[in-house]
Amino acid sequence: MEGTYVIFTDVSSDIEATFVKENDVHFIPMKYMIDSEDKLYTGMYDENVLKDFYSAQKNGAVTKTTQIAPQIYSDIWEPIVKEGNSIIYISLSSGLSSTYQSSVLAANELMEKYPDIKIIPIDSLAGTGGMSLLVELAIENKKNGMTIEDNAAYLNNRKHHICHWFMVEDLMYLKRGGRVSTTTALIGTTLNIKPILKINDEGKLVPIAKKRGIKAALKELLNLYEIASEGGEERIYITHADCIDNAKKLEKAILEKNPKCKITILMLNPVIGSHTGPGMIAILHFGKKI
């Protein structure tokens, strides 16, 4: 049917399996490695897979990810566009990965081959639950009859209002990614320092504070949420790297601040978790960027 389109994202987002099935959300899979073993994450939320991943990290396994080549996008998208469907693709932030650039190359190639369809990659400037917020909006807009062009324009506007507040438990993972020096990581680990980070306007993960101990770090995350919150019946994701107790503490504290909000708690995907390590926790919501 002319004018139909489907919603894609990649597995750097974290979305409940029931929502995916009920709303026909499509994923671009991504590879990751646990030591020398290749794995493929398809995006269908599976807590057992994620627990095994973080257990391996806690036992000293080295985890890595690989970028998505343009050909992967083409191979997945071509059967869909052949049937006359257009595509909106919500990508991991270009400030964290080259996946968006790869998707643009594949989209342009396919649109030359199939000129009657549109493929619109959206640089989410987000990750994990931040991407999930955009996916939910995309689905809602599509159900309400919004055209692909209007939907994409709306998402490109709203993405600038997504707040990401992260706490990382193990500084050594930030050291491996070049975000802190070896000296800072060693000293911070010794002193029980927990870095607080956000995703900035360029979609990059940047440190904004340091707190000593988990209790102080969780309090800072809550404070940042409260300053930036839009209030009311807002949508919130809490994602965590196998630290459900801390996630529940944040959920309780947020609900005390705003009983009307809707919170989803999910374990962090292995794509982002490979670089943040176990114990990471994040609050993702729409709000005032600070």
TrEMBL record:
Top-level lineage group: Bacteria
InterPro entries associated with the record: DegV (IPR003797), DegV_C (IPR043168), DegV_domain_contain (IPR050270)
Secreted is among the record's keywords: no
Keywords: Lipid-binding
Annotated signal sequence range: none
GO molecular-function terms, A-Z: lipid binding
Pfam families linked to this entry: DegV
Function: May bind long-chain fatty acids, such as palmitate, and may play a role in lipid transport or fatty acid metabolism.
Alphabetical list of NCBIfam families matching this protein: DegV (TIGR00762)
Protein name as annotated: DegV family protein
Organism this protein belongs to: Clostridium bornimense
